[in-house]
Amino acid sequence: MAMPRANTTIVVVGGGGTMGSSTALHLIRSGYNPANITVLDVYPIPSSQSAGHDLNKIMSIRVRNKPDALLSLEALDMWNNDPLFKPYFHNTGVMYCSSSEQGIEGLRMARQSLIKAKSEMENTNIWLDNEAEIVAKMPAFAQEQVKGWKGVHSLDGGWLAAAKAINGIGEFLRDQRVNFRFGRAGTFARPLLSEDGRTCVGVQTVDGTDYYADKVVLATGAWSPTLVDLEGQCVSKAWVFAHIQLTPEEAAEYKNSPVIYDGEYGFFFEPNEDNIIKVCDEFPGFTRFISHRPFGSNESKSISVPRSHAQHPTDTYPDASEATIRKAIARFLPRFKDRQLLNRSMCWCADTADANLLICEHPRWKNFILATGDSGHSFKLLPNIGKHVVDLIEGTISHDLAYAWKWRPGGDALKSRRAAPAKDLADMPGWKHDRTNRL
Ligand code: FAD
């Protein structure tokens, strides 16, 4: 029988990040007592080492499988209509483009899948067949720059003011008087288990504090596989970005432009209120394998362990990324190709083998719920993912979601569904600039 919501105590570990903050929000929206909810994180919400602590993220509809389609459509609806989230959604649209034969074929197929999933999306995902049609949607592009490009202009998306949106949840949680613990008192060390070792009864943080609870949700993103043994189901990987500063006059030309995305180069967003453009490249991610023993494992093993920019602010990204980010800028924003790059950073996510989330009860520890395995595409789910975590806690999650997100060792999370396995940072010079913290 489900526990009464008003009396159930819940600890959300990683509650300063994307899935954790969404879970805390939906617990309250579902009628749980804020006094019984404890949010733990290394950093105050919005946690500066969350993958969501960023200027912007893409909102777009994914239809790779049934859960993807359901979740992204549900998220879009909430970004459009939920008063908490609406202010952070910039419905500029997304322009997917390519000039390679394979890339263009990929665009056609992706558009067909959208239309198959929901026929109305034919009208909101417009095929751009030539340079003139592309420039019409993105006047800041010169016609000769987009020679041979084709594209899809998707009106169903745009960009999300990411860190601000998590902060919006944080303000709500603070108003509701949820319990917060950050720093050493918020940093998960291990689950507390019953005498027979089969039930989780709380967590201990690195300062030695014990937090007892009926349920524990572990939503620690790229750190999850380092904290508890996930049997290889998640591999932590870093992706990179850089910023360029524009003058107000330059920025005005890009105002309200769609997010531009080319899978062979990367993507960029319209400038923010400080005239800053964020540029990302596209590649299979970087790992950082070291010997490490997560809780629940009998021995140390080779695990990719994130190293956050928040804890190592002088870290940047590998020299190879400088080249690929510059290549993306030369492709999209050629007039700024020699401009200084700022805030060059790595940001960490957790890939699963099939790129589906890992949201389930840990099979060894009852009441210990995993909400992780974001696979680099889950910020867009900030408004709604927590609702499904609450459904899981209550045993009402839909069969399709429970099946897609179940505990499923096996498969190749190092490659996941990407073009190639991730390269390791040990083989990628240029990113590490402090002398005290060695790999
Ligand atoms: P996070 O948001 O990273 O949260 C994990 C939390 O756990 C953090 O707050 C961290 O501080 C906390 N934590 C870690 N260790 C501990 C501990 N020991 N104790 C307590 N707390 C701990 N997604 C999109 O939808 N659209 C995009 O355009 C997009 N672009 C991206 C671009 C880049 C460069 C990157 C890196 C990611 C991008 N993503 C995008 C992916 C998206 O950011 C992630 O999928 C999502 O933010 C992951 O959420 P999470 O809750 O799993 O992890």
UniProtKB/TrEMBL annotation:
Residues 11-392 form the FAD dependent oxidoreductase domain. InterPro entries: FAD-dep_OxRdtase, FAD/NAD-bd_sf, MTOX. Coiled coil: none annotated. Signal peptide: none annotated. Keywords: FAD, Flavoprotein, Oxidoreductase. Pfam families: DAO (PF01266). SUPFAM superfamilies: FAD/NAD(P)-binding domain. Its cofactor is FAD. Gene3D superfamilies: D-Amino Acid Oxidase, subunit A, domain 2, FAD/NAD(P)-binding domain. This is FAD dependent oxidoreductase domain-containing protein.
